[in-house]
Structure formats: C-alpha cells, structure tokens
Amino acid sequence: MGIQYFEDGKVFKLDTKNTSYILALVDGEFIGHAYYGKKLSDYHVCHLMRLEEGPFIPSKNNRDRGAFCDAFPFEYSTHGVGDYRESCLKVQTEGGHEACSLAYHSHKIYSGKPALLGLPATFGSESECSTLELVCLDPVLNLEVVLVYSVFEDVDAVTRSVRITNHSKEDIVLKKALSACLQLDGTDYEYITLHGSWARERHIDRRPLTHGKHSVSSLRGESGHQDHPFLAVMSSKTTQETGEVYAMNFVYSGNFLAQVEGCQFDTARMVMGINPENFSWTLTKDETFICPEVVMVYSDEGLGKMTRTFHDLYRNHLIRGKYRDKKRPILINNWEATYFNFNTDKLLSIAKEANKLGIEMLVMDDGWFGHREDDNTSLGDWQVNEEKLPGGLKTLVDGVNALGMKFGIWFEPEMISPDSDLYRAHPDWAIKIADRTPCRCRNQFVLDISRKEVRDYIYDRIKAVLSCANIEYVKWDMNRPLTDLGSISYPPQRQGELSHRYMLGVYEMQERLITDFPHLLLENCSGGGGRFDAGMLYYSPQIWCSDDTDAIERLSIQEGTAIVYPLCSMGAHVSDCPNHTVGRTTPFKTRGEVALAGTFGYELDVTRIPQKDRDMIPSQVAMYHKYNDLVRSGDYYRLASYSENHEYDCYEVAAKDGSEALVTYVEVLRRANFKTRRIRLKGLDQNAVYENEETKARYTGDILMYAGVQTPETWGDFSSKLMHFVRVE
Ligand code: DGJ
User: Fold this and answer.
1) Which domain holds residue 676?
2) Helix (H) or strand (E) run with residue 724 in it
3) Of the candidates 165, 160, 163, which has an alpha carbon nearest to the alpha carbon of residue 180?
4) 335 close to ligand 1 (CB < 6 Angstrom)
5) Which residue of 21, 214, 237, 517 lies most exposed, with the fewest beta carbons within 10 A?
6) Is there a catalytic annotation at residue 300?
7) 659 and 598 housed in the same domain
C-alpha cells in the first residue's frame, strides 16, 4: 500500500516508487503540507511546517489566528478566514457571506482509485493504486469537503481531486472550487508554461518566479491554443537531466487556472483548477460537486524525467480503447488537399493513389454534409450532401474499402451554423444571451451541449451517419471558443454553471460514442490543437496537434506538446509545400521524419504532388512501420531544443529494455564551414554494444551516452536525419 497513516504524529505518507508526499494534521484541525520530493524512509518531517515559530498554532495563541492562517502551508486553502494567498475554495451563502474554514473530520485509505463521475480521470487497479480520502468539514456552513489523493505504484505521480457536498438546508454557491494546492518552500524557482496561438500551440515559456501571482488560464470554454493547463515549477538551474521539478497537469478540457505565487515568507503556492471567473455552482441540500483531477509529478532528475513520468502515466492509466497500445493506421486527410472542393470521384482518386503507396485510411474532412461549400453554413445538418457524394456515404466508403483501405470522417458536433436547418428549427439551441446579438466566430455559434435534448439530437445524427457505412475513424473538431454565455435551461443564479456543464456534456457525448462504437479510432481536434489536453486523451488516444503542418514550425509545437503528452497521442501529418500556413518549402524527407514523432499520416493531394515526393512515400510508410512501436512505447529524451538554440533540434526515443534507440536530428538552417555536433544518447545499457544501422559503426552504450557521437553531416536548409542504434551484443 503506497499510503500510510502514522497516528503518533498524525501524519499521512503517500509513496510512489521514487517520491514521498507528506501531510499532517495539526492541532486536530488544520491539514498542513509537510513535504513533497524524493522518497523518504521516515515520516518525521513536520518540522518543515515551522510550527514552533510564530505565528503559533491558534490553540496555543488564538489572538494570532489570522497571522497563523496566512503563513500555514494549507493542503487546501479556503477564502475569507485569514489566508490571503490564493484560495482554492470560496462560497457564497444565502446570507451573502463568502468565508469558509475547513477542519479535519476523518479519513479513509483504500486500494484502487475511484472514477470521477462524468469526468475524465486517470485509472488503475487495486494493485496499481491506493487512495486517501480526507474528509473535512466547515461546521458553520455544514459543508463537507473531501480531499482525494491517489498514488500509483509504478509511476511517480500523485493525483488530486475534491468532492464538495452541501449538508445544510440552505443553498451554498461555490464561487471557486480548485482541484489542487501545493506549498513549496523557498521562492528560488523558475516555471514553465505552454503558450501559443492558433497554428503555434504549446511553445515552451520559461521564466523566473518572483513574488506575486503568475498564472495562465482559459476562459474560452476549451483549454485553448493560447495557454495550457500545465505548470511546472523548478529549481532555477534545472535542465533536462538535473534539478527538481514540481509539475501539475489538469485532466480537464474547459476553463482553467494554473498559478504559482511567490508569497511573503518566501514560500510558493501552486494551484490548479476550474477558472473561478465565469464559474459558480449552486449546491442544494445534499448535492455534490466534483472538481476535476490534477496530476502532480515530482522529478529530481530534471524535466526529462518529469516528461517520461507523464508519458508513462498517460499511456498506461489515462488513454483507453482498442488503439491505446496499437499502431494507428496511416491516414490521408483531404483537408489541405481539397478543402471544401471535393466529391466522391476526387476522394476515390486520392484513395486509389494513396493505397498504391501504402497509405491505409482515407479521412474525409469538413464539407460533406448539408450544403457546405465553405465554412459559412450547415453545421448541425449532419446529412450527406448527395450532390457531392452521389449514392451517399455508403458508395464512397464501399469504394474506399474495396481498395483495402479504411475510411474515416470529420464532424464538428458542438457547433451550429446560423444558416442551417437545425438553427432555423431551434434557434434557442445556440448558446447566447437574450437581447444580445451573439458573437459569431467562423460564422458559427456553439450549441448548448449542456442540454440533454441538444446532446441527444446531435448524438443520434452522428450515430446514424456512423451506422450507415463502415466508418472506422472520427475526427471530432471544435472550431470556435464559447462567448455570450447564456443558456435558457438555467435560472439567472445558475448561469455561471454553463461552461462546466458544457464540458460535462461534451464528455458524456464522447463516452457514448466510444461505448457504442468500441472499434472506432477517435481523434479530437480544435481548430488544430486548441483542445489538446489530458481530458480529451481519456476519450481519444490521439489529438490533432496543430493546423500548422510546416515541419519547422512543428519542431517547437511538438516539443512543447511532448513535454507532457506521449508521442503516440500527437496527430502529425506530412503536408504539401509551400506550406499552407507559413509558405515555407522544406524537403519531403524532413516532413516525413518530423511527422514520425506523432501518429503519422498525410494531408495533401497525393495525385498532384511532385513525382519525386510521391516516390518517397512508400519508404516513409516503411519507416513508420519500422519505428512506430518504438516511438509509441519508448522513453522520450530531449537531446537539444530548437526553441532554445534556434539552430537545430534533436530528440531520442529509447526502448524501455535498452535494445534500440532512434535519434531524430533536424538542422534548421545550414551553417557554412561548420563542424558536426556532438550528441550524447540516453537510456541505453552502458555495458552493451550498439550498431548504427546505417553506418554499421559500433559503440558501447557508455560511449554513446557519456562520450557521445557526431551528428551526421547535412546539406541544405531544413534537413533531417534519423540515426537508429540497435543493441548487437
Ligand atoms: C480545423 C482542423 O484543425 C482542420 O484540420 C480541419 O479539420 C478544419 N478545422 C475543417 O474545418
């Protein structure tokens, strides 16, 4: 059991293989954080809470309770009773008061990990996980708050969530209900967030921590392109291999807040949860609210170990379904090939050529339904446009299947076009505020997915489409954020529930989809990578990473994404040049080797690309088949970062058993009269002998890891090279 309670010190010790997380009851009331870090053999660390220094524990000196609360390392901070750092919980009572104070009531420790009703969450069996539930009460409000912690035996991760139940007769409104709080000693830290925009998602942003609040957030109703629900705080000299890192990642896809605060006594507080802006939630008697899960990872071996911990956790304890551990079919998507200008003949011509080259699945993107010839109409009218696809979907899908290929389809289920039969029939199904002209984005509105009748209608349409032919893949897109938050389903005081209820609705629809169609490969997407998050990974094993398919832009996008998410989840395609987003022309070879870091596919008109590029596809297909098992399941090491050095990019995937390693090297701009670079591999067996498959040169593992090898010579800009090392002795 990874969780122990020591009655003598009233200490809870949560252990993973290499980490300990220790909290303690103080004065029978307060729950304080004592330690998170490298695994300890003992639990006597409560001196770290500095309880012998003033301001003293209130029972010893109640005149300074306020000062005590403002310094105590609370496990879960509450608003309005003396702690002026960021609070996790804020309420509003019928009397209009916002204060809340929690005292320990009881606890329970058990094997396994509970599911979070209606929410995505990591999972594990009774032998893989154990859970601590700390029940706290605010006796004045009659509010019960259960802090839920789970630890994994095989991964150095601790998960947190919170269950809040109103036991009073009066309504209590939650104004803020964050999921996790972590106290850190000192302020000599730096922190990493993932920043971006459409077509340049999740670029790594590293800054020093100073006093005050540093936060990233979303109010867009999705995790978003701009900020990301991930935060890593680390000692200031932390590298890929050395230094301490404390990371939080939110298993949620909607509005979020991730914040670290440098506090007055030179401590730091990290918090994460649903963004309190745009949020309120009324709890009537005996109702419960569940805060989504936060995953916490500690690494004492730099960012690299943090990354590999997230990858292992998500590959084994978050991603589900038939494709979780499997090679995904190589797909060709017609979006950049045709945009809206396609018909059955065109798609079949792409499929025929693609099939000859070894591509395994055709995905029909946006524009197959209603009368959608551009992005102005028809969202919500999920009937096939028979002018484009005569004979309907079945004719097309049968044609594709007859070639021996699979077929996939695009939907944007959460949206409605003002120009659609659905909107004409149900204008009130769009999220909007009465008397205010709702904001259009891409000329579309967002459906009120929080309403069951709306969900049921849309889900039934999707189900009907998927049932009419042999469709084996769905790309679930979402192309605009939420605005004009108003739902006719709720009374005025409950309008603040809409964004979270919307997310619960999306999760419910996706759960239904993967339950009804267990063989379906689902790929989430949001205008590229606007909803690439751990919440979505619970439903789809892969997510479209970005609309930017340029190989060089992708280096930073994929590096930032892979800092948290496993390579097997990153949708990455080879596209045509000049690139549609940045106009850059890169070698076809480089495009293939960069896309190899993800799920791999094509996004081009294979009937029209240059013959020399087309000729290269069979070897790229072979490359994918050769390396994908390793890329999907291996350990990821960032050897050099183009976003840091602005010259070249290099990462390695090493097999967990040390039997092979693949290094991908991209020289962005060729420098004149310049020597090759030295790279040092990781994750190998230092006593084994490895062969570079191409050059046949042999090296011991220790030479590869400690002395290093030269990168291959390259020629021209944007060139790439793979190096495959295989254990031979
Ligand atoms: C945004 C996606 O990221 C693209 O791949 C494409 O599916 C378009 N939407 C279609 O509207």
Assistant:
1) 639-727
2) strand 719-727
3) 160
4) yes
5) 237
6) no
7) no
The protein residue whose alpha carbon is closest to atom 6 in ligand 1 is 335
Q: Pull the structure tokens for residue 32.
A: 């304080």
312 tagged catalytic: no
Nearest-angstrom CA–CA distance, 214 and 191: 9
CATH number at residue 283: 2.70.98.60
Residue 625 and residue 655 share a domain = no
Atom of ligand 1 nearest to the CA of 335: 6
Same domain, 74 and 149: yes
Ligand 1 centroid to Cα of residue 333, in Å, is 10
Predicted confidence (pLDDT) per residue in 498-533, tens digit: 999 999 999 999 999 999 999 999 999 999 999 999
Q: 611, 632, 653: which is the final residue of a domain?
A: 632
In this structure, the answer to whether residues 346 and 409 fall within a common structural domain is: yes
Q: How confident is the model at residue 59 (pLDDT cuts 50, 70, 90)?
A: confident
Instruction: Say if residue 271 is in the same domain as residue 381.
Output: no
- Tens digits of per-residue pLDDT, 217-244? 999 999 999 999 999 999 999 999 999 9
H-run or E-run covering 621: helix 611-633
Domain boundary among 603, 632, 661: 632
Q: How many domains does the chain have?
A: 3
User: Tens digits of per-residue pLDDT, 137-161?
Assistant: 999 999 999 999 999 989 999 999 9
| Residue 60 pLDDT grade (very low, low, confident, very high; cuts 50, 70, 90) | confident
How far apart are the C-alpha atoms of 26 and 270, rounded to whole Å? 21
User: What mean pLDDT is predicted for residues 37-47?
Assistant: 97
Task: Give CA–CA dist 352/360, Å, rounded.
Answer: 11
pLDDT at 420 over 80: yes
Q: Are 463 and 583 members of one domain?
A: yes
Ligand 1 near 545 CB (within 6 A): no
Distance 366 CA to ligand 1 centre (A): 7
Please give the backbone phi and psi of residue 130, each rounded to the nearest 5 degrees, phi first. -135, 160
* 170 neighbors 302 (Cβ within 8 angstroms): no
Residue 314 has a pLDDT of 98
pLDDT on residue 61: 80
Confidence (pLDDT) at 674? 87
